[in-house]
Amino acid sequence: MSGQAYRRWICDACGFIYDEKLGDPDSGLAPGTRYEDIADDWQCPLCGLSKSDLRLLPEPNPAGVSVRTARKSVAAKNKCRGGPDYIVIIGAGVAGWSAAEQLRKADPDRPVLLVTACEGLVYPKPALSIALAQGRQADDIVEKNAITRAEELGIDVRTETRIIKIDPLRKRITSSKGGIEYDTLVLATGAHQRALTIAGDAAGSIMRVNDLASYRQLRKSLDGDISRVMILGAGLIGCEFADDMIAAGYTVSVIDPASLPLINLLPDSISSELRTRLQSKGVSWHFHAQLQQLQKSATGLLATLSTGEQIETDLVLSAAGLIANTALANKAGISVTNGIAVDSNMRTSAPDIYALGDCASIDGRIYAYIEPIHRQARAIAAAISGGEDPFMSTPPLIRVKTPTLPLSICNPIDTDQAHWKNIEHSEDGCHMEYAGKPDQFGFILSGSHARHGPALYRRMMSPAV
User: Fold this and answer.
1) Strands, E, within 150-299: which ranges?
2) Is the pLDDT at 67 greater than 80, yes or no?
3) From the centroid of its chain, how far is CA 279?
4) Residue 166, beta-bridge partner list
5) Full-model pTM
6) Domain boundary assignment for the chain
7) Are 194 and 218 in contact (CB under 8 A)?
8) CATH architecture of the region 1-57
9) Where is pLDDT greater, at 261 or 64?
10) CB 229 within 8 A of CB 219
11) In DSSP terms, which residues pair with 304 in a beta bridge?
């Protein structure tokens, strides 16, 4: 194999890429270590999945095809207008492509059209918050363009086509490029960053990263003369970006109105440990505070907090949470709560219309993680093909990609901090389990214990799924 080009393997759960050229020195794999030579008990350093769970990535630029040529190929095939027998999917994120994959597995012959306002590039979204320290640009994250993936699945695709209106009675969609007809519609419209009310002449410069396009803009900004980054929000995405950016050499400050990071996911003891470990690496925390004003200054940007404190920075990144994209559904008369309301088969209130992912709400809860989205896609495919594989509202496994303190979290609904029981605790991390209601389960694994999260989750979930 000495003459074979180095390959890359991806962990779909967390976005970690094992590059044979770079190896994984922290886990004892020297640069140049081939996938075949990795021991079977090696685990993903971010989420703990095994070697066998990794998937071979295609070459970033197969056969020397340029990105411009690939986009021309997509444009040339952007002509399908659906039909009376078509399943039409709106959205090309993880949810949209997962739905397309499961629909094709359920029925190899049913015509399917995926429509998206973006380029429809296939990439692991969890990789966005960990790619900086790895030195990966936006194009390094992309696995396939829309045409390639659509051809693999045997479906039609229309990219850069914005949907304006859905008419459930006529089963027609109005788009920026003409009408589209459908028999069954799947909404995978995702979510958008929560808008914050901030004063100042630089408020419009605040960046929000929720997709590949916005990550590309962030990398372009960071390639400039920037050394100081302020992050708004100490939730999951905020903490992941903070860890990633501090590892990449930036000075990082985090602003949050709460008292600790990940306060909605962790008991105070683990939140405090995460705060301490990231602080020891240089992260500056500013809790019980919000950004009120952002102004241009002679040396960058001047941020004024609600506490009166002023901080000089070069870039502000918002990680203040997501809000489901429900405008299309609401305009079409489809029932909307905190998301598009669906039942366990992912059906909306409108006939022959389904929803999944960040935009879908089941009993008031949105499941915005990869594993439940895959299960939702299976539920939709089963329902459309005449079967039944209802989505079970079980707590998802959440892998927090903070190498400073890796975390695997499975939180039951309505947890009480008093009901977390220490199973094992050491300097290397802890293992806690939920000891509240007998019909609920959950756990929190940190540090060296986090790698056991997938196995423990499977054991706990086996009676439920």
Assistant:
1) 156-158, 163-167, 172-175, 178-181, 184-187, 191-193, 207-208, 228-232, 251-256, 284-287, 291-297
2) no
3) 25
4) 173
5) 0.84
6) 1-57, 76-192+323-384, 195-320, 406-461
7) no
8) Single Sheet (2.20)
9) 261
10) no
11) 293, 310
